[in-house]
Amino acid sequence: MGEYVVRVAGDGDVDGARAVMLDTVYRDLKSGYVPRWHADIIDPATAYLRPERCTLLVAEHVPSGEIVATGGVRDRGPASPPNPQWVADRFPSGTTAQLCRIYVRPEHRRRGLARDLVRELTDFVVRAGGYEALYLHTDPAVDGAEPFWRSLAHEVCDERRLPGGGQRIVHFALPLPQSAPRFAPAPAL
Q1: How big is the CA angle at 131 (ends 7 and 177), to the nearest 5 degrees?
Q2: Rounded to whole angstroms, how far apart are CA atoms 92 and 105?
Q3: Which of 67, 86, 87, 151 could form a disulfide with 16, with the two C-beta atoms 3.0–4.6 Å apart?
């Protein structure tokens, strides 16, 4: 067994996941808890564990048993406002899988946890089916966030470049892999 296990969160993981998320919005994002943006953090079970096409993954540090990273999929695209209307239109709710809350505690970063979470979340999106786009946004002020996402996804909109400055948010789309066929085609005779 390795030092970390990435797995689907259960009800017993909600408190640990919430702690990672709240620590991140206060320490890294410096926004603090904003109800209209962070309601899913207060009630992750309703946001991620109950809906069929949503999920929450956690990374557990095996030696300590502590939840040290989170990552979720929601079946909602970005809202406008606060996001530009054309971004919301490009990624409509229902057909867009949004990666969210991909947070790793600072002392556990640079160990591949975020990349593992993204891979597992992408696999979930393919298995869930019905999604046409894979979207996320990030705050480039968070150390390492922008280069990480640029290594995996392509930029859709950098709000820092919009007239009037916009928010300090960068929107990305990830390639959505096609699901594997259920049955291998029969060999040609």
Answers
A1: 70
A2: 31
A3: 67
For residue 151, what is the DSSP state? T
Is residue 99 a contact partner of residue 128, using CB atoms and an 8 Å limit? Answer: no
**Residue 37 region by backbone torsions, left for phi larger than 0, else alpha for psi between -120 and 50, else beta:** alpha
pLDDT category at 8 given cuts 50, 70, 90 is very high
- Spatial separation of the C-alpha atoms in residues 14 and 184, rounded to whole Å: 39
What does the H/E/C string look like for 15-81? HHHHHHHHHHHHHCCCCCCCHHHHHHHHCHHHHHHCCCCCEEEEEEECCCCEEEEEEEEECCCCCCC
Number of CB atoms found within 10 A of residue 161's CB: 10
Altogether, the residues listed in the chain come to a count of: 189
> Do the Cβ atoms of 69 and 3 come closer than 8 Å?
no
A 10 A CB-CB count for 6 gives 18
Give pLDDT tens digits for 35-75: 888 899 999 999 999 999 999 999 999 999 999 999 999 99
